[in-house]
Amino acid sequence: MDRFLQKIITSQLIIYTARCLIGFVIGYKLLLAFPEYELFWLLLSIILVISPEGKDSRKLTIDRVRSNFIGSFVGLFCLMIDQNLNIGVLMFGIVATSAICYLFKIMNTARVAVVALLIILLQPHLSDIELTPFVRFATVTAGCLIGLTITVLSSMLIRKLKRKYGIAY
User: Fold this and answer.
1) Each residue's pLDDT tens digit, 97-116
2) Are 20 and 53 in contact (CB under 8 A)?
């Protein structure tokens, strides 16, 4: 049994899959419980920020959270510039998002930031047009925090188990 457990706690596939399933269940339950909100973005953000276990899983997850914030914030800023989006505003948003990711040294997760930007800007609005970007920003933020919590708590559990079984981490 100990050997089986050791294989589980060292398998990136099992750890990542378990984290994704936990995140999906939490996000999906929230989506069903609050259908009046656009919680699909919460669910998507949870999955986007979860990382497989490894030396840098916490750092990668935190970088993905930062990227989501950057993309969402730039998206809100672009909507303040011009609510009737045109290709120029969209291109400005992509450039600004990429530049900010570069400045924060998180280029490895810049695509997450661009996805967050596009979620804010392009997805058809289901609710009050003025509130939609803010609701999306809030749901993306909540999803990031849920994904970060899942990664951090599971990392703590895995480290504890690795210590118990004398496995290097």
Assistant:
1) 999 999 999 998 898 899 88
2) no
E strands within the chain? none
CB 63 within 8 A of CB 108: yes
In this prediction, residue 100 carries a pLDDT of: 97
- Encoded tokens for 40: 């699909």
| One-letter amino acid for residue 103 of the chain | L
Q: Which two tokens stand for residue 19?
A: 């984290």
Going from N- to C-terminal start, the domains of the chain cover: 2-164
**Look-up of token digits 């004398």:** 166
Closest CA to 147 of 56, 47, 74, 79: 47
Q: How many residues does the chain have?
A: 169
Do 11 and 164 meet the contact criterion of CB atoms below 8 Å apart?
Answer: no
Q: How far is Cα 93 from Cα 27, in angstroms, rounded to an integer?
A: 28
What mean pLDDT value characterizes the chain? Answer: 86
Does this model's pTM top 0.90? My answer is no
- The pLDDT score that the predictor gives to residue 92 is 95
CB 65 within 8 A of CB 57: no
Q: Give percent helix, percent strand, percent coil of the chain, each to the nearest 5.
A: 80, 0, 20
Please enumerate in sequence order all residues whose Cβ is within 8 A of that of 111, keeping only pairs 6 or more positions apart, or say none: none
